[in-house]
Design goal:
alpha/beta, Glutaredoxin, 2 domains, five-stranded mixed sheet, four-stranded mixed sheet
Amino acid sequence: MRFFNPIYVILGISILLYVEVYGSDYQYDPNSIPHISTQKLKNIISSGNEAMLVYFYGDFKECPECQRLLPKFHEAVEYLHKLDDGKVVSYKLAMKFPEYGVNTLPQMVLFNQDTSFLYDGTGREEVWEVNDVLEWVEEAKQTPVQELTDETFEHLTQSSTGATTGDWVILFADRSKAECLKPHLPVMGTVGLRLRMRKNVAFVDTSTSEAVTKRFGAVLPSTCASLLFVKKIEVPMKHARGNLLAYSFHRTELYKVPMDEFSVSTVLDFVLDGFQKVEHMEVPKVQSEPNPHLEQLMKTLNSFIEDYGRTHTVQAFYLAIITLLVLGVIGFLVRKFRKRKIL
C-alpha cells in the first residue's frame, strides 16, 4: 500500500511541465556526468557528507543493456538536479563495485549518508523512466535503515513479547569482515524503502552486539551474514461461550530468509508471502545477563553466614542444651501441678 505524499505530486507535475516545454525526444551529453574513481567513491562514502547517485556500467560491446540504460540515467539526473538544486551529486563508474553488492552491470546505487540503496529496476527498462527513478530517490532519502544493538534490540523490536512494534526484517552481519555487511546493505536499503510504513528493516553488527548474537546464534545459518524475519501475529481472544472479545493478544514467529539468491525481489517475495510456505521457529528468549554488583553482594552475604556459623557453633550447642533443660523443668512442674490438683 502506497501512502499519499505531496512531494510525489509536485515531482510529477514538474516532470510533465518540463517534458511539455522541452519535448520528449531527449538528447544527452555523455560528458555531462563525471566519472569517479573507486578510491574517491570509497572516501566519500566513508565521510558520509555527500549524497551520491552512481551509475555502474561496463563495456558496451559486452553489455548492451549498459548502453541502452545510460541515456535514461542521464535524463533522470538532469531532472533530479533541477528539482533538488544539486543536493544529490551524480557520478558514473565503468566497473563493478563488489564491496557494496554491485556484482552485475548495469546497476544504479544511491549513497545517502550511512545508508545505501540498490535500484531494483535493472532488467526492466520501463521502470527506468524519469518519474520512477525520482520517486525512488525521494523515498530513499526518507528511509533510514537503523542499526540494532544489545541495548536497543529488545526495546525496539519487542520480539519476545509480540508487542505492537510490527514486523521486522533483520540482517545479522559481521561489520569487521568486508564481505559480510557492506555488500548486503544496498539491497536492505531498498527493501526498507519498498516496505516503508509497513515493516521495519534493520541490521545487527554481530562483531559488536555480542548478547543479541549469542541469543540468536542457534538459528543463524551463517556467522557472516544471515537474514531473519520476525512476524507479529494477532490472536483474537474468545469468551468461554465462544464469542470474540474486543481485545486480543500478540505472539511472534521467526523465519529464516533464504539468501541463496539475495536480491530486493527475493526478500520482498518471502516477507510478503513466501514465509507462509515454511515452518516458523520460536523466537529465542532474552538471556538475562548476570549483574556483577548483585553477584558480589551475594558472595559477601554467603561469606558472612559461613563465618557466623563457624564462630557461633559452640554457643549454639549450649543454647540448645539450656533450652531443652528449661523445657524439661516446665514439663515436670506441669505434671506435678496436675497430680496435686487431682488429689
